[in-house]
Amino acid sequence: MSRILHLSDLHFGTEDPAVVQALLQLAEEQQPSLCLLSGDITQRARRSQFAAADAFVRQLPAPVLAIPGNHDLPLFNLPLRLLDPYGNYRRVFGESLAPQLSRADLLVIGVNSTRAARHKNGEVSNRQIQRVAQQLQQARPDQLRVVMLHHPVCAIQPSDLANLLIGREQAVPAWVDAGMDLLLAGHIHLPYRMPLTGSGQRRAWALQAGTGVSQRVRGSIPNSVNFIEYGAVSGQRWCQVTRWDYAFEQTRFLAVEQQSLPLDGSD
């Protein structure tokens, strides 16, 4: 069985130290085999904020695969945004803005949906859509096939429609048809799950994470992360997602919701 910690929107520079420690405690207790970080790691892409993020991820008990969010590009430092927008990000998380991982049980494809020319909105190009689809088609039968980007592709609140990924109408059905199981994202600090469909009967799932450790919580929604459990036995694949919210009175994360997600099509 695989255990994956999905966290997003840490926004170091606005982090709550008590929540940081609680999340490290949760990770130590749950022992994920991989941590997936879907962007907005810092608040203003400053070196000091990336240094704090680096110190945090080094304490996690599993390898971290990350992609940038719009806050991980400088906003006020215009020369740096124009000449080297991902420089500080790359110093900590490596050269690739679209990292990938493939192992016996798991395929993760990172997608960079940020653009230096855009302040907030995310976008995917036709080339990115085709690249991801081709990689999904090469997945092995027992792998959980995960695409991770920062910007959401579906919304449960009308106010979030303006935050949706540009190019999603082309990307989502292409990736579902190619074999995607989960699409992980963040950006709007609101945790939820929604089904995604392709051109046929096959179905995948959008899995949104809230803000992991920052004080920039959304309304009454507390800091939140997801744990994904996955297994395959004799060709039968299963996936279970548990949402963990930070409880202020107990100063720890608590499991608040658990759901089994059908894979490979409809129920």
UniProtKB/TrEMBL annotation:
Keywords: Hydrolase, Iron, Metal-binding. InterPro entries: Calcineurin-like_PHP, CNP_phosphodiesterase-III, Metallo-depent_PP-like. Residues 3-190 form the Calcineurin-like phosphoesterase domain. It comes from the Bacteria. Gene3D superfamilies: 3.60.21.10. Transmembrane segments: none annotated. One of its GO terms (molecular function) is hydrolase activity. The keyword Hydrolase applies. Belongs to the cyclic nucleotide phosphodiesterase class-III family. This is 3',5'-cyclic AMP phosphodiesterase CpdA. It comes from Halopseudomonas bauzanensis. The lineage of its organism: Bacteria, Pseudomonadati, Pseudomonadota, Gammaproteobacteria, Pseudomonadales.
